[in-house]
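Handout, page 2. Input:
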Amino acid sequence: MTRYLLRRLLMMVPLLLIISGVAFLLIQLSPSDPAEVALRVNAIVPTPQAIADMRHELGLDAPLWQQYLTWLHRCVHFDLGTTFITRQPVADELARALPATLWLAATTLAMIVVISLVLSLLCVSAADRWPDKLIRAGLFLLTAMPGYWLGLLLLWLVAVKWRWLPVGGIDEAGAVILPALTLACGYIGTYVRLLRSNMLANRHQPWVEYARARGLSERRILWRYVLVNALYSPLVALGMSIPKLIAGTLIIENIFAWPGLGRLCVTAIFERDYPVIQAYVLLMAVLFVVCNFLIDTLQMWLDPRLRRGVVR
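Output:
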C-alpha cells in the first residue's frame, strides 16, 4: 500500500510539470503582446520604448526556456506574478476569492448529498411505481437544463418575483442558497440514478434475504444495510466532483455576483489579465490531479480487494 502511494506520488511529478508547461504557454500563445496589454489596461500609451521596458519588467525578453524555469521557480514558492490591473500579487487575489468559492462548493456538496439520499430512498421504496417514475422524469428534465438558464430562471422567480432570497452577492443571509442549488441540480440526477441502481441491485443479494429471515424490518434493512453497501461508487464519484464543483462555478458566480474564483477569472478574461488567467488554470489543474490521487487512496482504503491486488 505504501509503495503504491509513493509510486503514485512520483507519477504526479511529470504530470504536474506538463500542466505547468501548458499554463505557462497560455501567455506565449496569446494573440496580443502581454507587455502591450499591461500598458493599455493601465492607460499608458504603448510606445516602442514603453513596450520594450514592460517586456523587460515582465521578463519576456529572456529566452523561452529561461522564462519557464523562472516562472516555475516562482510558482513553487507561491509567487504567481502580479496582476496587470491592480498591480497586486496574483496569489493575494486568489486567496481573497478562494474562501467564497469554497463556501459555495461546500454548500453545493451538502445539498447534493442530502437531496440525492432522500430522492434515491424514495425511488427505491416505490420502485417502478408512479412516485419513482415521476422523480426520475423530473430529474431527467432538471439535468438537461443548462446551468446558466436555470440560474437565471431561479434568480427571476425566487429572488425577483417572490423576493424569498437575496438577488445576489455574499453579504446577506441565505445568499448562497440559489447559486448552490443551481450548481447542485446538475449533479443530483446522476447520483440519484447511481444510488438507486446500486440499492436495487443490493436488495436481491443473499445477505438481504438473511436479514429478512432474522425478522428485521424493510426500513431498517434499507437504511442500515442496503444503503451503506450502495455508497461505495457514489462516494468515489462524489469525490471526483469536488474539483468539478470548484471549477464549475465560473458562470454561476457571475450570474449571482458571487465574489469567488470564477468571477475573478471571467473578469480577468475580459480585461486580458493574463497572469490571473494563467494562475487560475494552473490552480484548477493541480486541484484535479490532487483530488484524483486522494480518491484513489480512498478507494484503496475502502476496498481490501484493491489492496490485495496492489500487493500482488
